[in-house]
From TrEMBL:
Upper classification of the organism: Bacteria, Bacillati, Bacillota, Bacilli, Bacillales
Binding site for GTP: S146, K147, A148, D149, G198, A199, S200, G201, V202, G203, K204, S205, T206
EC number, UniProt record: 3.6.1.-
Cofactor binding description: Binds 1 zinc ion per subunit.
Gene responsible for this protein: rsgA
Gene Ontology molecular-function annotations: GTP binding; GTPase activity; metal ion binding; rRNA binding
NCBIfam families registered for this protein in UniProt: ribosome small subunit-dependent GTPase A
Record localization: Cytoplasm
Similarity comment text for this entry: Belongs to the TRAFAC class YlqF/YawG GTPase family. RsgA subfamily.
Name listed for the protein in its UniProt record: Small ribosomal subunit biogenesis GTPase RsgA
Record's subunit section: Monomer. Associates with 30S ribosomal subunit, binds 16S rRNA.
Amino acid sequence: MFEQKNFGIKKYVNENPINSHSDIARVIQKNNHLYTIATIDKIIPRVKVAHKLTDKDFYVGDFVMFNWQDDDYYLEELLQRKNVISKASSHAAKSYHVKSYEQILATNVDQLYILIAADQRFTLSKLERYLMTFNQEKLELNILISKADYIEETKEIIETIHSNYPKVKITSVSMHQGESIQLVKDTLYSGKTAMFIGASGVGKSTLINYLTNNRSEDTNSVRTDGKGKHTTTVTKMLYLEETDSLLIDSPGFKTISTTNEVDGNILFAEIQDLAKYCKFNDCTHNHESGCAVIRAVEDGELSTEQLSRYSLYEKKLRGQLKYENMKQLKKQKKFYSKN
Ligand SMILES: Nc1nc2c(ncn2[C@@H]2O[C@H](COP(=O)(O)OP(=O)(O)OP(=O)(O)O)[C@@H](O)[C@H]2O)c(=O)[nH]1
Ligand SMILES: [Zn+2]
């Protein structure tokens, strides 16, 4: 028998050096300064943040200690996180004056489902940014092509991805294909937390509603712009009893990038492995003699598309470094002209 609404607190207590679970809870919703938390036996809404702490200290997914005082509940202490899902804050990334910072989307996530909608414009660089932004240890990444009832578009997207990245695993899903919902359900782990992210209108809430058999929220009425009436504005966690898993729905985003250092390993492991056998350490895999990567292309082990995506990635990385250096230089100049 599954425990009713098991938000993972018992498991957390078992795996971490904590004595009791009586005042431990998990943040399951965040609404500006107010939180909803789940304890071992109840859900508490409208929880505030204790004195000297702020809403930057707690996110959905966090395990916390809480307290009751003067008729209100307060979050008192953050317990150790397993991981953090974050991206660059979108407004900061655009402004030269504001230092971009990482914005936390949720914490303690085991599986991340990245939705790409078949009816929205697809580019490889979008997929690459998603994968590189969220790639980290102890996090399983899953690519879902949603609205797969757009059959032609879905086929095209999958073909584009596979001709460049033959090893990336892709699942397609549609609310009009019940068996595809079941396939997604089958990939959820018991006792684990899965988060669904993607651009606005890709169908995150719809998928979660179908997974949890909750049709109450009106995500089905189609608007002419295809974005749907119901837009998620808060991040929240739901319990799926059938698989004993936790599902996090999150607001859609416009752009994705990260201020963290990225590593092309998730997409280019094969090329990076081959590069170890190049004659020159600083081989650009462009024209050099003794290049193991070019040889692999000639031997048909690697497609030219794969290599050209890699070159593009390298170029961007170098451009990024140059940009960072330039910013640094400008800052220094400013400093010296002031002093
Ligand atoms: N054709 C088709 N439409 C879908 C599918 N899933 C969702 N939609 C429609 O797409 C629109 C957006 O769906 P939502 O579930 O609200 O999307 P969301 O990703 O949660 O959007 P935000 O909350 O704004 O981030 C709605 O009109 C849905 O009816 C699908 O599988 N096929
Ligand atoms: Zn080489």
